[in-house]
Amino acid sequence: QSRSISGRVTDRQTGDGLPGVTVLLKGTSNGVSTNADGTYTLSVTQSAGTLVFSSIGYIQIERAFGEENQINVALAPDTKQLNEVVVTAFGIERETKALTYTVQEVQGEQITKVAQPNVTNALQGKVAGVIVRQSSGMPGSSSLITIRGSRFLTGNNQPLYVVDGLPIESQADFGGGVGDTDYSSRALDINPSDIESISVLKGGAAAALYGNRAANGVVVITTKRGKGVGKKAQLSYTSDYTLDYASRFPKLQNTWAQGSNGIFNQNTSTSWGPRITELDPAVLDKGGKAIVPGRVYDNVEPFFRTGHTINNAVDLTGSGDFGNYGVGLGYTKQIGVIPTTGMDRYSAKVGGDFKVSDKFTIGATANYTNLQVSKLPNGSNLSNPLFTTYYAPRSYDLWGIPFEDPNNPNQQINYRGSFDNPRWALAHNSFSEQTNRMFGSANASYKFTNWLTLNYRVGEDFYTTEGKEFYDLGSGNTGGRTAVPSGGQVRDYTVTQNQLNSNANLVFNKDLTDDINLNVLLGNEFYDIRNRYQNMLGQGVTIGGLQNIDNTTTQTTTEYITRKRTVGFYGNLAASWKEMIYLNASGREDFISNLPNGNRTIFYPSVGLGFVITEAVSVPQNVVTFAKLRASYAETAQAPDATYLTQPRFVRGGAGSGYLSDGITFPFQGLTALSLSDVLYTNQLKPVNVSTTEFGADLRFFNNRLTFDYTFFIQNANNQIFAAPSAPSIGYTSRYVNAGKLRTLGNELVLGITPVRTDNGFNWNLTANFTAYRNKVLELAEGVDNIFLGGFTEPNIRAQAGNAYPVIFGTRYLRNSNGQIVVDADGYPQADEQLGVIGQVQPKFEVGVTNNFTFKGITLTAQVDVRRGGQAYAGNTRLARLYGMDKATEDRTSDYIFPGVKESGTDAQGNPTYVSNDIAIKRDQTYWQLVNDGIDEASVFKTDFVRLRELSLAYSLPTSVVSKTKVLSNVSLTLTGRNLFLITKYPNFDPETNIGGASNFQGLEYVALPQVKSYGIGLRATF
Amino acid sequence: CTEDKLDEIDTNPNTPTDSPVQLLLPQVEVDAAFGISGTDLAWISSVFVEHTTGVHAQFENLDKRAVGSFTNNTTSNNWNDIYAGELVDLNLIIQKGSDGGSEAGAWRYVGIAKVLKAYTLGITTDLFGRIPYSEALQGDALLKPVYDKQQDIYTVIDDLLTDAIVDLDKTSSKSPTNADLFYGGDAAKWKKVAYSLKARYYNHLSKRDPAGSADKALAAAAQGFASPADNFTFTKYTTAAIGQNPWYQEQNDRGHFAVSATFYSILQNGTPTVTADDDPRIPFLVDPVGRNASNPRVAAPNGTAIADQGGTTYSRISTNIVDATSAQPLMTYAELKFIEAEAQLRKGNATAAYDAYVAGVNADLNAKGGSTYTNSTSTNANVIAFRAKVFMGASNLTLRDIITQKYVAAFPYMSIESYNDYRRTGFPVLNNPKGPAPRRFPYPQSEIDTNGDNVPNVPLASGVWWDDGTED
After folding, report:
1. Residues A794, B15: C-beta atoms closer than 8 Å
2. Fewer CB within 10 Å, N- or C-terminus of chain A?
3. CATH of region A85-223
4. Contact between residue A920 and residue A895 where contact means Cβ atoms under 8 Å apart
């Protein structure tokens, strides 16, 4: 007797009906395919049997049946299919199982999930070995990205970005200083919504083909181009809205008034005055009102506002016999958590491929971005508004007392001199930059035979960034807080960069026998980079508020042009035998302009081997699904980033002091003057050599429910090029050398677990990206123990021989030979006269754990990032203590015994002996200001944290509902959050805050702008 | 792409690879005035010698002798400027202008450069003691220069000045005009500077060779400045932000300094040996609190002042002497007269000493407020009373009087010289309750890091050679 079994097959992750799934009665040829909505009806005659549901891209499942006539199943996507392909160097797609090096892919939707506007930031925690350091949560803030740590002591440590085959600029035009405005990283110009996928080429072997500029790995971005979308054009619309808040506020004391030595003084920066309750009500405050004894003001929180991020993007994609295309438009607007800050980004992109004939394909991509950022000075800048917000005395009514003289708005009213009142700073100063950028390429591909293809691509990346920084008349950072307001400054700068890239590849790909495949690539690359920086500095603003450089009394202009060119030839050979053994070998030779004549050539070889155990040994597939071991060795190299290191330079004359904003600059008195540079240049440079050896294992169990992708690597970067400090008495403060060794040992693990997968469609996936590496400086130049990377006279960030890279350097506690802190006769700790290492910046490990739960149309994703083992100099907390504002300075009267030892006499050899310290001190002004503040080590704290980096809850409307609209094919709503909670012992501020921007100068925080946390909602609709 | 093409691409379009002496001279002069004499080294000396009291940040810490306030990093910028800046550029001028150089015969430039080199070495050795010289400034060729004895550096200074005088007398193939910001290329004036500096540096050796140093100082002084018109003074500061007087910039940018109680007390009361009434220079040197004429003048106590960055509690140095375009003396006729007075006193010539002392005081009174102070017929009661006290007659003149008036005349720009005088003579008597001033400056961390074997390991309380007779 014949009967029907019907049901619906859905996608386990999205809940959507799956069309085209084969439903087969096991052991027979009786089968049907599912309909467009996933439904099927199969006629059977048996009273019992088994149905097999299979579809490409999904894990096949079987279901036994008895008398029931309805069977619904949910298929899990086979995301780790063994025949999955990833994009490798020069856009070459390779099967994952064929790789002999490490490549990890991130899908576009993972990038855009929580509406992070900066693609670099979105990578944090999602790729093992990749570390992103976002300098702050300000719109447009720079981010440092490194892959497997640092290779270069002072050079560039960030990867090359390649978009649709075109290498582009991704880095900030300027590095971080201790009192600068931050400069955006140029990767910010990429609209995340345009991204189809990102492939991260991690080690030397993966990136070797890119040559000189890829020593730090490559981030290969593929934008949406409509491949596989189908003939019907697909239009998708994305809209996100988030509310942003400063993530942490300092904990302040609320007992003590402004003053010093217990005496009220309303002109000092410190809060070492009397109790606020004991203030004299007869005294008038700076606004002319009577002081209210006992009144404590919250000056910090009113300074911040709720930020907003609005993101809208439209993509149109499609494909057909003619080829494929993708058009993307994006607009992102951010309003920062500090008034006046914000970002606007407009982007447009069009790309496509056109099949001229079966043999000939042409394509082109063009991207345009307009980016505007409004920002603020950072760090020790006297106009950094946070300086005077965080530490405005609790007795000072920052928000009630006017910030300027009503009769002269350039005359500030502030509780202290020199520094700007924060409200005045926001109202008067302004800092902005605007970038206009085009990048794009045209490519052609000709297939001579089905095994020989020629590809050619030529592209250009062009941008101009114009910045304007305005310090108004009377501004503190320009020395303007005088009896009659003075100073003021206008800075207009322009950076223009052109990169021309040309790239030709000839690809041979043939199965030589049934078992042997051979793939050979030969290619040539040419690139030429020109950069021009013009800076016009106008000092002495004449009319307050007028931001034109003509409105200044002195103008100084600077121009700096760099140009470099590289020509490279390369080849790659990939061979496989029986899909069991894979061999990859490559070589590249570069000719580089900015190395000395005679030393311009670099050759980079690489070789790798992969062995698929599961092809060689028979094991139950449902237990050990796949197992591969791989090993590779590669040499890469890097020419210096900087140009013109081979000849002496006479530089513009001038004089100054670390305590002055301006100093003297020529032209002066109508004269120009020159001075021999204090850097010694040399024509003896050779390229830096980097060798990487890596071993990896790709293990998948239980039909991919448990996967490990583990890599161990050793990376040696020798012959570093850097300006080694020299004894200034040789006439130079530093000299360029080829010296030094930096070694990195690391472990990376990508762990994937599917703990729960139920028939009713509930699915739990867990992915952990674990990164642990140790960068160690084995040696520096002869006679050089450490080099300065950035920071203050002290403390600062350095690379030190024999230590991890980098270290915090400054004044240490005086310790005895047992490492115990030795207090003086008064019971106070002392400073060691010798400066030294006071902290290690590098964490022992970082891990990003993403849990993904899906049930029918609901997806919950949570990414938790954990960092352990690094330290930072907490300059903000140091200042909070110096000024008597930190909560820790609240108790000024209790006895306190500093944990340490005191001298108790001398032993027989005359060496001092020690006993436990028992001398009670008060932690008062003397302690914090004159003792603690002079010991930099006292302000170094661990940056360990556990952070809920991303959280999203998405709901896809059921297909049954969506399909009724006729036009919509998919609609989802998402609730999102970023940085929702943070567990850390780091005091007062976010441990990810940093003033070094996107530079090697990491681990020092000093009145840095805050990080933010965000709550948002997103809409995605596909038509 | 050929090597030639790559060479062309790699040619620096931004900076030249060489410079004529004419473009180096303005740099070395500005650096001598601003970088070396006008900033950190002078400011630190000023706090130590209690011309000023640090009332904010680093200088407040120095005044309070706070932990970590005077370290191997404190002087790094200045040391860099001296060795990798000033001395390198000076040597280039000397080498280019001398026989065999690319601009051989430019003796005027060479002579000026030698004077400035002697001046720079003098300041450096007086503050640090032993310094690199004989093996210094050779770039890659010698990475670890030895530190020469101060005694030998003093010989070098004298030789340089002697040579400079010879060079300045030679016919010069080219001579600076505007490019010489001090004297417009006037060789005679530069020779007077050379002789005056000789007098200064001989006199520094008062503890080592009391009689010889006095004879030599007097001989040199005779050919030094003939009047204040010859002063070695930088007068070219402008109102442009990048052209202002360094002390003025400091006051606006940071506000570290208030007028010190020690100094102000001397102005108000003199010293126990000479109890002077209010010095008529007070209004010229010290502003009322907040620069508001209705406020009193309040000096900041040494070692115990409260933080006062904004200048609302304590008096600041007067804008009469520290303003955007104020002249900055490096050495003056008044100082030369006090050197003469001191040398004569050491030789037992009381009358000659007194005459020089009176000339020194009058020169400074004249400089600080004009002729009303020096005119002996002045009817200004203050001036009359003051003159009666400080012009006490030859028989009553003491070293303390000379150094005290020299200390007032040096305020604020020549505090380094006052710090030298304090270490040589013990005057002025300092009052900081937090402890004595260090007797030398710490070597920079950069030298310790890369030339550590040669850097002397000397406690800061230990005097330099001319102070205690030992090099370390």
Report:
1. no
2. N
3. 2.170.130.10
4. yes
Helices (H), B32-106: 40-48, 57-63, 76-81, 87-97
Q: What span, in angstroms and rounded, lies between the C-alpha atoms of B408 and B280?
A: 12
Structural domain spans, chain B: 21-456
Q: Which residue from B minimizes the CA distance to A490? A: B241
The token pair at A59 is: 């894990």
Say what percent of chain B tops pLDDT 70.
Answer: 97
- Rounded to whole angstroms, how far apart are CA atoms A227 and A318? 7
Kind and range of the H or E run holding B117:
helix B107-128
Find the mean pLDDT for residues B338-365: 96
- Predicted local confidence at residue A83, as pLDDT: 59
In this predicted model, what pLDDT tens digit does every residue of B142-186 receive, in sequence order? 999 999 999 999 999 999 999 999 999 999 999 999 999 999 999
Task: Give which of B269, B233, B278 is closest to B380, Cα–Cα.
Answer: B278
Low-confidence ranges of chain A (pLDDT < 50): 80, 82
The string of DSSP codes covering A605-649 is EEEEEEEEHHHHS---TTTEEEEEEEEEEEEEEE--SSS--SS--
Domain B21-456 listed as CATH 1.25.40.390: yes
Amino acid identity at A693: T
Please list the residues that pair with A491 across neighbouring strands: A469, A537
> pLDDT for B76-129, tens place per residue?
999 999 999 999 999 999 999 999 999 999 999 999 999 999 999 999 999 999
Q: What residues form DSSP beta bridges with A1021?
A: A237, A971
Count of positions (residues) in chain B: 472
Residue B203 is given by DSSP the state H
For A728, the closest of B16, B84, B236 (CB atoms) is B84
Domain with CATH 2.170.130.10 in chain A: 85-223
Contact A600 B3 (CB under 8 A): yes
pLDDT of residue B181: 98
The residue of chain A with its CA nearest to that of B146 is: A729
Residues 423 through 452 of chain B touching chain A, CB cutoff 8 Å: 444-447, 449-451
Query: Do A730 and B12 lie within an 8 Å CB cutoff?
Result: no
**From B72, B79, B306, residue closest to A265, measured CB to CB:** B306
Q: What pLDDT, on the 0 to 100 scale, is given for residue B376?
A: 55
Convert the pLDDT of each residue in B99-110 to its tens digit: 999 999 999 999
Using a 10 angstrom Cβ sphere, with 0-12 exposed, 13-18 middle and 19 or more buried, the burial of residue A904 is: exposed
pLDDT digits (tens, 9 = 90+) for B249-272: 999 888 999 999 999 999 999 888
Asked if B132 has any chain A CB less than 8 Å from its own CB, the reply is yes
For residue A210, the SS3 value is helix
Interface of B with A in 387-426 (CB under 8 A): none
One-letter amino acid at B43 equals: W
pLDDT on residue A13: 66
B230 closest CA partner among B264, B267, B191? B191
Q: How many CB atoms lie within 10 A of CB A45?
A: 11
| Residue in the structure block whose two tokens are 């060789």 | B187
Q: What is the pLDDT of residue A584?
A: 93
State how beta strands A845-855 and A858-868 pair.
Answer: antiparallel
Cβ contact, residue pair A416, B309, below 8 Å: yes
pLDDT of residue A229: 63
How many whole angstroms separate alpha carbon A95 and alpha carbon A621?
A: 19
Euclidean distance between CA atoms A268 and A425, whole angstroms: 19
CB atoms within 10 A of CB A29: 6
Quick check: B138 and A676 CB within 8 A? Answer: no
Cβ atoms A778, A743 nearer than 8 A:
yes
ipTM of predicted assembly, 2 dp: 0.95
Residues in contact with A442: Cβ distance below 8 Å, sequence separation at least 6, in sequence order: A362, A363, A364, A457, A458, A459
Fold held by A3-75: Immunoglobulin-like (2.60.40)
